[in-house]
Specification:
about 150 residues, alpha+beta, eight-stranded antiparallel sheet, 8 strands
Length: about 150
């Protein structure tokens, strides 16, 4: 019988993190099909997002909903909690600027809260997440509190 191989891509356990720990994700470009799929899935049919003509808008380009930007950010962060994340408990979210089709985003994250649950069998970790575009501009900030597994 052979020894079990470790799984590549497993997320952080509670013990892997500490206050002040920072990391960043890979990048992702938001494309027209992302917007179309998101609008169709959510029925977020606001003309700002559903109509291509920007001649009457102050903002040029195809803006995307902040909810789409947040969703992409969570997808970029998924590898950090794969198999170890137990619950998303709460967050505040602040939109700092527009995101348009063609923008490339990544997430920079810092642990700002780190404690055991009352039972002590899992941990609570709050992150300060900044979604940053290709120009270095922060377009969205949010601070999720997540419940994470402890190491076996």
């Amino acid at each position: 019988m052979s020894e079990a191989l470790p799984v590549v891509g497993r997320g952080f356990y509670f013990e892997d993190l500490r206050i002040g720990f920072r990391f960043r994700t890979h990048r992702r470009t938001i494309a027209e099909p992302d917007l179309a799929s998101f609008v169709n899935l959510t029925w977020l049919t606001e003309e700002l997002f559903a109509v291509a003509d920007d001649s009457q808008r102050a903002l040029k380009g195809r803006p995307v909903p902040a909810a789409l930007v947040y969703s992409c950010a969570e997808g970029l962060l998924l590898p950090t909690m794969q198999d170890t994340g137990l619950a998303f408990l709460n967050a505040t979210l602040d939109v700092k600027g527009p995101t348009v089709i063609g923008d490339t985003i990544h997430v920079e994250s810092e642990v700002i809260e780190h404690r055991l649950t009352s039972k002590g069998d899992r941990g609570l970790v709050r992150f300060a997440n900044k979604v940053i575009n290709q120009k270095g501009e922060t377009v969205l900030e949010y601070n999720p509190l997540r419940m994470l597994r402890r190491k076996p």
